[in-house]
Structure formats: C-alpha cells, structure tokens
C-alpha cells in the first residue's frame, strides 16, 4: 500500500476514534510480537464501496477494544454492554472511518458506501492477516486494531 494512502488512512481513522470514541490509535509498522498475535474473541466489521473507485475494508476489533468504544459511544456502563451493541458499534465505526476516508480520497463524491456488516468471531488469529498487501495495524490500549483494505 502506498505511503501517502497509509498516512491518509491513519489521519482519518485517528480523527474518528479520538472524536467519537475517545480512543487513540498509534500506527504499527513492524509485525507485532507473539503475545500480541494471540487468538481470541474479535468483532469483524466489513464495509464495501463502489462508484468512482471500488473496494472493501475489513476491520478486526479485539473484543476489549470493541467493548470500550461501545461504552464510550453509547454512554453505557461496561457491565451492561451487550454483544449486539458491540457489533453495531463496530459496524458504525467502519461506516464512519471509511466514509471519512472516501470524503478525502473522492472529493467529487462518486463513490458510495454499502451498509456495513459485523459479526462476532469466537476464535480468531490475527496472524492469518500478516502479509496481506492492504493491511494496516493500529495499537490501542485495548489491543491491536487490524484493518485490511482491498481495492479493485
């Protein structure tokens, strides 16, 4: 992935996460260590776009990150968060992040977003994402956010 595009992705995602969820992202350039590649419960959010350009993004939120952004976004107590709320927040996060990104990359507004989808992955290993060309990794205090973009 081109470095200018990576920079725009990082800036856009950081704006969304800081403004909407009070969560800070730090881009990771190096492959995380074994302890950070541990399997576990994740929320996968998918969103595609078409028009002036076509592609999709997959977001992989560690469960604790998904739960934290849900608490911050909805203003609910941590012990009251339900799985459905975490899935909905992950889908909305993908929508806001990619909507913001397309606003910067496609100022003429030719591209349009599809409805985002989200699901809980009971067991997922981020190691399966390593080596993908559109992979972006962001460190948070609640684990690594993994994002894979594909462009046609």
Give an overview in words:
- This protein has 152 residues and is of the alpha+beta class.
- The protein has a single domain, classed as CheC-like (Chemotaxis protein chec).
- The chain is 36% helix and 31% strand.
- Strands 1, 2, 3, 4, 5, 6 and 7 form a 7-stranded antiparallel β-sheet that branches.
- Strand 2 and strand 3 form a beta hairpin.
- Helix 2 crosses helix 3.
- It is globular, with a radius of gyration of 15 Å.
- The two termini are 13 Å apart.
- The model has no long low-confidence stretch (mean pLDDT 92).
Give the tags:
152 residues, alpha+beta, globular
Structural class: alpha+beta
Radius of gyration from the alpha-carbon trace, in angstroms? 15 Å
Helicity, in percent? 25-40%
User: Which residue ranges are poorly predicted, with pLDDT under 50 across at least 5 consecutive positions?
Assistant: none
Please outline the major beta sheet. 7 strands, antiparallel
Q: What is the CATH class?
A: Alpha Beta
Order of helices and strands: HEEEHHEEEE
Q: What's the rounded overall pLDDT mean?
A: 92
CATH superfamily: CheC-like
First CA to last CA: what distance?
Answer: 13 Å
What's the count of strands?
Answer: 7
CATH topological fold name: Chemotaxis protein chec
Strand content: 25-35%
The tally of domains stands at: 1
Shape field: globular
Number of helices: 3
Secondary-structure arrangement, i.e. CATH architecture: 3-Layer(aba) Sandwich
